[in-house]
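Quick question, first post here. What does this chain look like in 3D?
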Amino acid sequence: MIRNYRDLTRLEMEQINKEETIILIPVGALEQHGNHAPLGTDDMIAEAMVEYLGQALEEAGEHNFPILAFPVIPIGLSTEHRNFCGSVTLQPDTYYHLLYDISTSLARHGFRKLAFLVCHGGNTPIVQILSRELRSQLGISPFILSSGAFSHPDVQATLTEGNIYDFHGGEMETSMVMAVNPALVKLETAEAGIPTPFVGNQTLKTAGSVTIGWISEDWKTADGKPIGIGGDPSGATAEKGNIILKTSAKVLVEGLLEIRDWQA
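> Answer (accepted):
Ran it through. C-alpha cells below.
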C-alpha cells in the first residue's frame, strides 16, 4: 500500500526522510473519451494506478518502499480535445506553472525525488520540459513514468483481433475504466474511430518522423463523423482492464527501484 501525501500531519511530514522519499505525482485530465467513456477516464486510471503500484511493490517484497502519492492533478493540457463537449484544458504556460509551483513547494521542504505519473499523453511535452528545468534550476531529480504499458505483449494480447487503431478512448483505456467502475462505461453508445486523414499515408502519420499536431476531429467514424477516439472500444471488459493495470504497474516497479537508488 502506498501512503497518501494528504493523509499525513505536519509533524509526520517533518519526520519523513526527504532525501530518500519519492513523491509520486499523477497527472490526469478532464476530457472527452468518446460517447461511451467518462470525462474523468484519465483521472480514474491515475487513481487506480497508485493502488495497483502499491500492490505490485508488495508482491515484489517492497513492504516499506519510500514513496508518497500526491493528489491527482485532475486537469491538464487537453488542447486536442477542447472542441468536444465536456473537455477542459489549461493553457500550456498555465499548466507548466501549476506543476512548477507544486514542484518548487515540495523542493522547498527538502524533497529531492519527484516522479510524475503521466496518465494523459497530452501532458507529456510539458512534463518533459518541466523535468529538465527543475533539474537544471533546483538540482532535484524529476522522473517521468507512463501509466500504461500499452505496447507490452500481455497488454496487446487483450485487444480484439482486427482492432488496429486502438488509441485514446479505445478498447484498452475503456477496459481500464471498467476495471475501476464498470457502471460509468456505456458501451451501447460506443462507435469506432479511425485517423481518416492519415490512413494510406506512407510517412505522414499521427506519430513518427513526419507528423502534425493532430486534433480529436482527425479521428472519425466509418461514415466520416468526428468521434475523437481511436479503435473500436466495443470489446472492452473489466477483466482486460485488470490485466492492463496490473501489467502496467508491474512494469514500473523496476523503474521505481532504480529511482530509489538514484544518486545525483
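The first strand starts at residue 3 and ends at 4.
The chain has a mean pLDDT of 97.
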